[in-house]
């Protein structure tokens, strides 16, 4: 749908995808998915509306069947956990920029050592957890964090 594409004025994001955005490195479920996510992440100031269902990233995912993730129960749990650990920014009625969502996930989940607790069952979890141990994350998603080159 037009409203969920990265090129539209207002796209949607399901909460746990703020974490995916911080660790994405060009791998994914298909080349179409990777291309879409690459385009999506190119603008950290993109205004987003949080959604509880399939979002702008799901739109290009082969696991999206008629607007429902094939692993919906699991990813909905990731979303619920993300919401439980982050602040009001994820609950806002108004659209918020991608970087603010990523900053909240960084502050409230990653820095608190909660990454595995949020999405440890994900097939990509080992990749993300390994990157976090090295503080190897997409710093362009955190333009105002002031974190140094070591992520500290
Ligand atoms: S696996 Fe599910 S939640 Fe993740 S991008 Fe694909 S459809 Fe969306």
Please explain how this structure is put together.
The chain is mainly alpha-helical and 152 residues long. The chain is built from 6 helices and 5 strands, in the order E-H-H-E-E-E-H-E-H-H-H. The strands form 2 sheets. The chain has a 3-stranded mixed β-sheet with strand order 1-2-5. The chain has a two-stranded antiparallel sheet with strand order 3-4. Helix 1 (17-23) crosses helix 4. The protein starts with 10 loop residues before the first strand and ends in a 19-residue tail after the last helix. The relative contact order is 0.18. The site of iron/sulfur cluster has 10 residues, from loops. Iron/sulfur cluster binds at residues 29, 54, 57-58, 61, 63-64, 69, 71, 75.
Summarize it.
With 152 residues, the protein is mainly alpha-helical. It is built from 6 helices and 5 strands; from the N terminus they run βααβββαβααα. α1 packs across α4.
Q: Topology of this structure?
A:
Blueprint lengths: L10 E3 L3 H7 L7 H11 L5 E4 L13 E2 L2 E2 L2 H14 L10 E2 H13 L4 H5 L5 H9 L19
Parallel strand pairs: 1-2
Antiparallel strand pairs: 2-5, 3-4
Iron/sulfur cluster (SF4) binds next to loops.
């Amino acid at each position: 749908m037009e409203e969920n594409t990265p090129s539209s004025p207002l796209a949607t994001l399901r909460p746990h995808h703020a974490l995916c955005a911080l660790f994405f490195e060009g791998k994914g479920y298909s080349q179409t998915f990777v291309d879409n996510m690459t385009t999506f992440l190119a603008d950290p100031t993109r205004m987003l509306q949080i959604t509880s269902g399939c979002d702008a990233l799901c739109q290009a995912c082969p696991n999206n069947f008629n607007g429902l993730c094939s692993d919906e129960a699991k990813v909905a749990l990731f979303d619920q956990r993300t919401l439980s650990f982050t602040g009001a920014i994820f609950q806002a009625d108004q659209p918020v920029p991608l970087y603010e969502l990523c900053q909240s996930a960084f502050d409230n989940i990653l820095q608190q050592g909660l990454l595995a607790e949020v999405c440890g069952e994900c097939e990509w979890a080992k990749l993300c957890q390994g990157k976090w141990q090295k503080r190897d994350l997409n710093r362009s998603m955190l333009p105002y964090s002031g974190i140094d080159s070591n992520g500290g």
